[in-house]
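Q: I have 118 residues here and want to know how they pack in 3D. Can you give me a structure?
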Amino acid sequence: MIEIHTGNAEDKSYISYRLEKLGRDWVLYITGGVPHIGSVACTEKTGDTGEIHQFTLQHHREDIIVRRALEKLRRLLDGEILVVGGIHYDGIETAQIRQIEQNCDELLEQLSAELRDS
């Protein structure tokens, strides 16, 4: 398991990435604030290609973060990959959302580097 995080809850920027091996497959949890399921995406490898299936719950916006993580991880990992994202902070402002997006990008790069180094 790899777990990395950044930011802090006080300014509504805390984000955690937790990657777990599940047999030959992988599950990545992306959470912040009140953890929940907002969007999920998974790979389905078919022959030489692979499809991505994604589902986002109504009124949730984690789909871009989840999709970005899945796209990056599918180039680094064997097996199927499931990404679960749920980030919720009450009363969040636009600047804070941008900070969360930036934190997610930074964590994804950190996670990718750890996977390449291992």
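Q: Anything worth noting?
A: The chain has two helices and six strands. The mean pLDDT is 94.
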